[in-house]
Design goal:
The chain contains ten helices and twelve strands. With about 300 residues, the chain is α/β, with parallel strands linked by helices. It binds NADP nicotinamide-adenine-dinucleotide phosphate (NAP).
Length: about 300
């Protein structure tokens, strides 16, 4: 954790594009709830020949303690790693950083997506069993790490099977045999075969996200398995087409807003050493007009 600054905290988010980010809202709410002064800035860095220079300039501001914490999002979660001094075990295993802090003269990269998901998923399912993860990008890597570390058997399906194979290979080593990770093609045939044996389906693709809200990662012709619960990491809209279909099939469902709050809360706590008020963050989102699921931890 960094020492408290003399005047006000300055946090920020690096990524591109950042137009609709909810992070400023969440962190302002957490600051206010703790009676702390501070700001949360958006630092959009276009992906061009100068992006590495801009990235390093912002990291230098952390080293100078002009900034007190940075979040990282697409497309820099992996690209930032070579510029850091240390990675947390989770960030190292997942191969992606979403939170950077300055501690004892070192820039530390963390991944709060994995513990953020684990905390929110506990509202949906409590006992590890067999999970099916759709997608094999950055969010899927965090999800598989969280699930496999908690003892879930995980199958990862993606439209490019080599991406899922790489994920399974990297994370199988990192979780040191705690669980098995299988991979396969995201296709109706494979989903039809796997579905009867799973107790959790987790969407880690962006399919269903606004504005393409009529899309679903689950093929129309494959029946959803009624015994499973469904978690969708997409948080806009709060209830995706996949979740509506699963709810209609009698399944228990949860969208990604709780994870969004948790990953931000964990970053805030890493930067300030103070508790983040999840309830204040939820209230800020509700005021902003974001529909919220029930049962999120306070
Ligand atoms: P990413 O790194 O770009 O990975 C996306 C994955 O989905 C890739 O495997 C991609 O395959 C696959 N995919 C994309 N379009 C697809 C399609 N039409 N059909 C099948 N597969 C498709 O993105 P990410 O960072 O993992 O984010 C994924 C989603 O999770 C986003 O909606 C993001 O907002 C959400 N997320 C939510 C939270 C939260 O706090 N709730 C946190 C992180 C992420 P290709 O590589 O072949 O395109």
């Amino acid at each position: 954790m960094s020492a408290a600054p003399q005047q006000a905290y300055r946090f920020g988010l690096i990524g591109y594009p950042l137009g609709h980010s909810l992070s400023p809202l969440l962190h302002q709410a957490a600051l206010k709830a703790q009676g702390l002064e501070g700001e949360y800035h958006l630092f959009p860095i276009p992906t061009d020949a100068h992006s590495a220079v801009h990235l390093q300039a912002l990291l230098q501001r952390l080293r100078n303690e002009e900034l007190h914490g940075l979040n990282i999002t697409i497309p820099y979660k992996q690209a930032v790693i070579p510029f850091l001094d240390n990675l947390s075990p989770a960030a190292s295993a997942i191969g992606a950083v979403n939170t950077i802090r300055w501690s004892n003269g070192r820039l530390i990269g963390e991944n709060t997506d994995a513990p953020g998901l684990a905390a929110d998923l506990a509202h949906l399912v409590q006992t590890p069993a067999v999970a099916l993860v759709l997608g094999a990008g950055g969010a899927a890597r965090a999800a598989v790490y969280a699930l496999a570390s908690a003892g879930w058997q995980v199958s990862v399906v993606s439209r490019r099977p080599e991406q899922a194979r790489q994920l399974a290979q990297d994370l199988q080593t990192a979780i040191k045999g705690k669980a098995s990770i299988y991979f396969a093609l995201l296709s109706p045939e494979v989903l039809g075969d796997l579905a009867p044996g799973v107790s959790l389906i987790l969407n880690a693709t962006p399919v269903g996200m606004a504005p393409a809200v009529d899309a679903s990662p689950w093929p129309e012709q494959v029946p959803l398995p009624p015994q499973a619960a469904v978690y969708d990491m997409v948080y806009n809209p709060a209830e995706t087409r996949l979740l509506r279909a699963a709810r209609a099939a009698g399944m228990r469902v949860r969208g990604g807003i709780g994870m969004l709050i948790e990953q931000a809360a964990l970053a805030f706590e890493a930067w300030t050493g103070r508790p983040a008020s999840r309830s204040a963050m939820r209230a800020a989102l509700a005021e902003h007009g974001q529909a919220l699921p029930s049962g999120t931890a306070q």
